[in-house]
Amino acid sequence: MFFKLKDKALWQTLSKASLIGIHLVTCTFVGLLIGFYLDKWLGTKPWFLIAFLVFGIAAGFKNMYQEVKKIQDAEKKDARPGK
After folding, report:
1. CA angle in degrees (0–180, nearest 5) for 28-21-74
2. Which residue of 5, 46, 59, 79 is most buried, as measured by CB atoms within 10 A?
3. Is the pLDDT of residue 8 over 60?
């Protein structure tokens, strides 16, 4: 059974929450690709791959943290009495 959700704030929160996993995966993948191609180009296998993989994971977690903070701040703003 499909329920229609008409609450705009809920849809916005769900769309922001869906970005959390996407940020981690894309940042990790981009870091991995950059490291792979730098290693291939410079012949330094596997050092750039490892370094940029770590940078990508760190960037993904940073982006995840920022998205969660945005969601929490929006919920705090909505929860205040007398908005």
Report:
1. 125
2. 59
3. yes
